[in-house]
Amino acid sequence: MRNITFDNITETVTKAYAGTEDERTREIITLLIKRLHDFVREVKLTPQEWEAAMGFLLRAAQASNEQRNEFILLSDLLGVSALVDLLDGKDDAGASITTLMGPFYVPGQPDMEAGADLIKDNDGERILVQGQIRSANGGPLPGAIVEIWQNGPNGLYTVQDPNQPDDNLRCTLHADAEGRYSFSTVKPISYTVPDDGAGGELVRAAGRHCWRPAHIHLMISADGHKRHISQIFNEADPYIDEDAVFGVRSDLAVPFDREPTEAELQRFPNIKRPFNVVNMDFVLAHAE
Length: 288
Ligand code: BEZ
Ligand code: FE
Hints:
This protein is α/β, with parallel strands linked by helices. It has helices at residues 9-16, 23-43, 47-63, 70-77, 80-89, 198-205, 262-267, and strands at 111-112, 116-117, 126-135, 145-149, 170-174, 180-186, 191-192, 211-212, 215-221, 228-234, 253-254, 276-279, 282-284.
């Protein structure tokens, strides 16, 4: 390994990793080395550019801590997280499309009954969100667990805001005997992903912005099915076609302003009026 040249370096480095014991890790690392080296050759990366890139990664590391992983944000902003999710779901015939989980999920939120009221002290326009959880084989999924989280009227999630109770606008629901779920909440609002780290640098360099259109996050679990991660987007949001992290999918962008029918008004007598209705069904793929 003394005679390393421009022509043999890629082969030399891949050979050095050929002993990687785990087969899948070996496959990934070998292709990663080849693609990285090809990338450097193709863009003719200079030492100054390499140094700038290493500084950028250092700043990403410095912005990261227990609560914040700037590398995930970079993956989101570069569309890699979205690609991994799309790849994972692309062969799930008959299942609903999924999307990003984002960094603000917290497990173990309070169990609540169907029709749960998440509004409490939050200001904003009231909405009822409802739908059915079904299996890709067509049947409903009674007892499916639906975990929900969204931002507050100030645009922040509880984990970003010490002034909100830890479980504000979050809960765990259990679908009823027909696989139906429902809860009342306030309309989420558009917000910016954290822009004070390397992610913000990247976005500003590209002349982009950090906004995400208003959405409610859901994670749905049911025996024998893949964990289903989704978001319900307000299709009228000004950022619906320019999500900073490429998370919007056509099927997940729906109206947030449908007036309730008489039957819905009767079924949900405890939601303070006026409120609008948001409908979204989810079809889960089978676990392998
Ligand atoms: C979110 O939707 O909560 C989110 C997703 C990606 C990056 C930042 C936030
Ligand atoms: Fe979000």
